[in-house]
Amino acid sequence: MRSRMSAKAARRVIGVAALAVLLVADLVLSDRSTQNRDAGRVEQAAERAPEICPEKATESLRCHRLSTGVWAVVYPPVEAPRQSTAPAAPATAAGEPVLWDAGGPGIRPLDAATARRSLPAWLHGSTVVALVEPWVTNTVLETCLKTVEEIAAGDAISDERRDDWSRRYQRDCPLEEFRLDPREYAESFRELQAKEGVFRGVYAQSFGAVRATGVFTELARNHGWAVLDAPAPPPGTTAPALLGDRAAAVEKGLLPLTECGSAPPSDPAAAAACTQRLHALLVDMGAGAKRPTGPNADDYARMTGLLSLSADLEGNAARLKGLMAAWPKFSDADQDLLDKGSFHFTRRYGDGQVLGEFVGYLANVCPAYPGWGHGTGAPADKPLAAALTRMHYPCSAAAPVDGTNWNLPKPADMPRLLVAANAEDPVTPPTAAQAWRTAHPSAEYVEYRYGGHIKAPDEADARIARWITGLGS
User: Fold this and answer.
1) What's this model's pTM, rounded to 2 decimal places?
2) Burial, 28: exposed, middle or buried (Cβ in 10 Å; 0-12, 13-18, 19+)?
3) The sheet that has 444-448: what strands, in order across it?
């Protein structure tokens, strides 16, 4: 195993300059159709790269290239001004670095300024370290991107083509090169401790909670802690549950944006009728006979567009409400909005070309949950789940259907655990947080409400910080 890991690590080794170009990317995808071909700008960035992230300390950040082949980015403490009137949270222990896994997967590391804005106030005074997903530094080949392009667009693979496509996918996309697996995650963590000092904690968001299990045993040995913010479902969750719960959470989040939601009925029968009308609308948009009067995008584009916009239900409330009210008389602007949302959600350029993020996403998510290909197919009367199933077809075609490469440690090997659950999260619904509590009953629990994915309010900062320092909740 050691020799395989070493070869894998060697193939991941790249120059500092190449990594630095990637460090200035944003956390979320934007519309890249006008910026992805600017070779001159990339070349200039490469020339400046050594000044951005050399292998020595800088004012804003520094990097480590680890023996596992994984890169780590270190963000030194920077006191940022608080933006709210909430009581100041107690600082975490001075000098103790914190591992930050921002989840994703399929996201790039952040520049120091963006990273600090993305972190909660209780981490402002801490040294924060993030591991870089290997697909970022180990280039995803064009042949691989081309192979998954049709899947990202929602094209169906016939039974006759299934075996051939699966063989091409496994041949063209060496997924082990693009994922963080448990062993190298743990080994990278231990090596970082030798460089940065003992880690007492990990702050894991969304899918980062799954990967953080790889260092739970080490944290427990250090008498450490883990804060899981809006966590993805824990290891052991099945793929059908993963997709079905997410689709259900999105549908629930859309209900307040309908006519019924503006004045929710108190009568249970009337409330149920509202839910049924919304479901019928989504079925019609996803698989019904009606077609929009604007550009004739397919059902997959509409559903993935809705899934994308629903990741920020609060910020996109007016847009989503307008789309549902307009159906089927979509304007060109309505359809353009859904198209852009679909490109964002499935990680494609405006011309349909797949981004490396999509392969990074598949490489990490597919082996994290068992059961792909066994009940993950969703019927037409569940259009959101059906769209998610189509997007994750490679998991059924090429991933082990009964295995997972992440596992929860035994209770004795678990660190102190705090689960921060967003009761209105449409991406990692509260059922996921509840599953973590079931798996680890002694975990503390903090609940907040935000119509979107991961945005714990300032008022939670003090409670979390008191919990970390052992002063209670």
Assistant:
1) 0.85
2) exposed
3) 62-65, 71-75, 128-131, 98-101, 201-205, 225-229, 416-422, 444-448
Q: Is-contact 181 405, C-beta < 8 A?
A: yes
348 and 36 Cβ atoms separated by less than 8 Å = no
Tokens at residue 72, please? 């780590």
Peptide bond into 328 cis (omega under 30): yes
Provide the 8-state DSSP code for 266.
S
Beta bridge partners of 418: 227, 444
Please spell the DSSP secondary structure of 395-421, one letter per residue: HHHHS-SS--S--PPPGGG--EEEEEE
| pLDDT tens sequence across 414-466 | 999 999 999 999 999 999 999 999 999 999 998 888 888 877 767 778 888 88
pLDDT, one tens digit per residue, over 178-225 is: 999 999 999 999 999 999 999 989 999 999 999 999 999 999 999 999
Residue 393 has pLDDT above 80, yes or no: yes
Torsion sign across C-alpha atoms 99, 100, 106, 111: negative
E-assigned strand segments in 11-127: 62-65, 71-75, 98-101
Cα 153 from Cα 242, distance rounded (Å): 21
Strand 201-205 relative to strand 128-131, pairing: unpaired
How far apart are alpha carbons 81 and 443 in whole angstroms?
31
**How many CB atoms sit inside 10 A of residue 272's CB?**
11
Indicate the Cα dihedral angle 48, 52, 57, 59, nearest 10°.
120
- Give me the torsion for CA of 265, 268, 271, 272, rounded to 10°: -170
Q: Is the pLDDT of residue 364 over 70?
A: yes
CB 407 within 8 A of CB 213: yes
Q: Is there a contact between 122 and 466 (Cβ–Cβ < 8 Å)?
A: no
Q: Which two tokens stand for residue 5?
A: 């890991």
Q: What is the mean pLDDT of the chain?
A: 80
What's the Cα-to-Cα distance from 123 to each of 75, 258, 357, rounded to whole Å?
11, 38, 27
Say which residue the tokens 């400046």 belong to: 48
The confidence score (pLDDT) of residue 458 equals 74
Of 241, 240, 243, 238, give the one whose Cα is nearest residue 404: 238
The amino acid at residue 229 is: D
